[in-house]
Each structure stands twice: as C-alpha cells, then as structure tokens.
C-alpha cells in the first residue's frame, strides 16, 4: 500500500433503523471515487467513539472517519 500523503478528518454519525437489513455506509475515496471495503486500522477515542483510518488501494489517498455509537438498551 502506498503511504498517504494527507490525512483528513471527517465526522459521521450512524443511527439505528428499524429495518431488518442493516444500513452500511462504506466510504468512497474523495480523490478517485473508488469504493472502500475495510479500514486499515481503528481506535477507540472515547467510550462511544471509534476512529477509522482509510487508505485508498487505487490512488493511496488516506483519511480518517469518526463514528459515534449509540448505547443499545434492552427492554
């Protein structure tokens, strides 16, 4: 994999839906628009925040996404 020349941070938030099919929002490269399937690495930033490092296999561009998770409670 090529080293990323720049690292940009974006923040996204995922919400749980009542649909039986889970919604998956995988990122696309902002430079070449190639689809990304798996993050290169991940880290917990806080109890409910996960940060993912993405690197494009096509052009080598790297960026970070942060995802806030909602706590699930059973009733």
Q: Can you describe this structure?
A:
- The protein has strands at residues 7-13, 41-46, 49-55, 62-68.
- By secondary structure, it is mainly β.
- Strand 3 (49-55) and strand 4 (62-68) form a beta hairpin.
- The protein is elongated and about 45 Å long.
Quick one: biggest sheet? Answer: 4 strands, mixed
User: What share of the residues lie within helices?
Assistant: under 10%
Number of strands: 4
Placed side by side, the strands forming the largest sheet appear as 1-4-3-2
Total DSSP helices? 0
Q: Which sequence of SSEs, written as H and E, runs from N to C? A: EEEE
Rg, Cα atoms, Å: 14 Å
What general outline do the C-alpha atoms trace?
Answer: elongated
Query: Which secondary-structure class do the elements indicate?
Result: mainly beta
Average pLDDT, to the nearest integer? 77
- In terms of per-residue confidence, which ranges show pLDDT below 50 for 5 or more consecutive residues? 1-9, 11-18
Give the amount of beta strand, in percent.
Answer: 35-45%
């Amino acid at each position: 994999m090529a080293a990323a020349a720049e690292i940009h941070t974006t923040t996204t938030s995922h919400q749980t839906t009542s649909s039986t099919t889970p919604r998956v929002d995988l990122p696309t490269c902002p430079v070449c628009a190639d689809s990304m399937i798996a993050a290169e690495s991940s880290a917990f930033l806080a109890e409910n925040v996960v940060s993912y490092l993405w690197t494009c296999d096509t052009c080598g561009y790297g960026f970070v996404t942060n995802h806030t998770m909602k706590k699930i409670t059973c009733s």
